[in-house]
User: Fold this.
Amino acid sequence: MHRQLRKTGLWTLNLDLPGEFTLSCKGQMIPVKSSGNDRFLFRYIDLTENARRILFEVIRENQPERESLT
Assistant:
């Protein structure tokens, strides 16, 4: 599965967030080495500072836990 995700290259992510804000960005799927083969992180590459701020506010408001964010 790692190779399939790597071959895809860039992914496009669109999230509808509260407040009628749609987050759109591109990024790469990166395997988490410590978790075996079943967890991946989305590493964004073109997120604006404003979009980043809004995203992290939404995460903070929803009482995040590391395990549920991966």
Remarks:
- The first helix runs from residue 2 to 8.
- Residues 2-69 form one domain.
